[in-house]
Design goal:
Elements lengths: L3 E7 L3 E8 L7 E6 L6 H16 L4 E8 L2 E3 L4 E5 L4 E4 L1 H9 L3 E5 H11 L6 E7 L3 E7 L2 E2 L30 H5 L1 H12 L5 H9 L3 H25 L3 E5 L6 H14 L10 E3 L6 H13 L3
Parallel strand pairs: 1-4, 4-8, 9-12, 12-13
Antiparallel strand pairs: 1-2, 2-3, 5-6, 6-7, 9-10, 10-11
Helix pairs in contact: 1-2, 3-9, 6-7, 7-8
């Protein structure tokens, strides 16, 4: 019986697990569960192992990959710190390999997504992937290599300060990009200003209905993010910028981000600005970490 490859994407709100037949890029099975990081690491990995073992059935696991938000050391197989999850110094590889085997890789989720987007395109010199979801993060691939930084913390753009004395971020500082333009930041701001519990989708829906408070909130969020991405593109000059994540792919939100970029980017003669929405299914994080695991552990 052929072996199976497992790909896992651990997000701040939900975790996606996909199982693949060898050499295939479409999963034969996928399952999504709430991450619930506040319940603790042991509880999470117990639930994760149950899902993985159920999905593989009687088949052996050949390779596996796990990606997550935060500063990740692939070499050590360790999550250094993830403000979105509230986890520090987690031996991800050790925990996952206890039920998946040793042919696995650990990576930051945006790095994995960037690699996935790059791998499924042709003739792309460099690519930046930005996810806008619960938080905001970035990955960059140049000529097939992920740029991780000296401390495995490159791409943590969600924690760059864009507004002095702005909203409190999960990292403990004020005015970070994701506290203004990310999903959790929008929800917290709505709660603080209006005293109501409201999800990101409803905030955007009510902005579309021209309700003043929500429209003002989404305008500030999208313009702040658009200006930041404009500066990012002007600084790094990628072949393509790909935007993903549940909030980034919301058409109303994306159109306002794109409008800000188009109005403000540095117009060097002959410069082509290519901005795309992620279209990889089930998501680029999953296919990216799958591709990395297969490249690392070749048959």
């Amino acid at each position: 019986m052929p072996a199976v490859d497992i790909a896992i994407d651990v997000g701040g709100t939900k975790t996606l697990v996909s199982a693949f037949d060898e050499k295939e890029v479409e999963p034969y099975s996928s399952e999504e569960i709430p991450t619930r990081p506040a319940e603790g690491i042991d509880s999470f990995f117990e639930r994760l192992s149950n899902i993985c073992l159920r999905m593989k059935g009687s088949r052996n696991i050949n390779r596996w990959g796990l990606c997550t938000a935060g500063a990740v050391s692939p070499e050590k197989g360790k999550l250094i710190w993830s403000p979105n999850l509230g986890w520090k110094d987690v031996e991800l590889f050790k925990r996952a390999s206890s039920f998946l085997g040793t042919k696995g890789v650990i990576e930051n989720d945006c790095n994995a997504a960037a690699f996935g987007e790059w791998a499924f395109r042709k003739d792309i010199e460099s690519l930046i992937y930005v996810t806008v979801s619960t938080g905001i993060g970035m990955g960059m691939v140049v000529r097939g290599k992920i740029l991780r930084g000296a401390n495995n913390a490159a791409g943590e753009i969600g924690h760059t300060i864009v507004k002095r004395n702005g909203p409190l971020c999960t990292c403990g500082r004020r005015g970070c990009l994701q506290s203004i333009s990310g999903g959790r930041g929008l929800e917290i701001r709505a709660n603080d200003s209006l005293g109501i519990e409201i999800g990101t989708k409803e905030i955007i829906d009510r902005a579309e209905l021209n309700e003043p408070v929500f429209k003002e909130m989404i305008t500030e969020a999208s313009e702040t993010l658009g200006r930041f991405l404009c500066n990012l593109m002007d600084s790094l000059d990628p072949s393509v910028l790909v935007i993903g994540g549940s909030l980034g792919k919301n058409r109303y939100y994306f159109d306002r981000i794109l409008k800000t970029i188009e109005e403000n980017y540095y117009r060097v003669p002959g410069k082509k600005v290519k901005i795309e929405l992620s279209s990889i299914e089930p998501n680029p994080n999953i296919l990216g970490i799958l591709s990395l695991s297969r490249r690392t552990h070749k048959d």
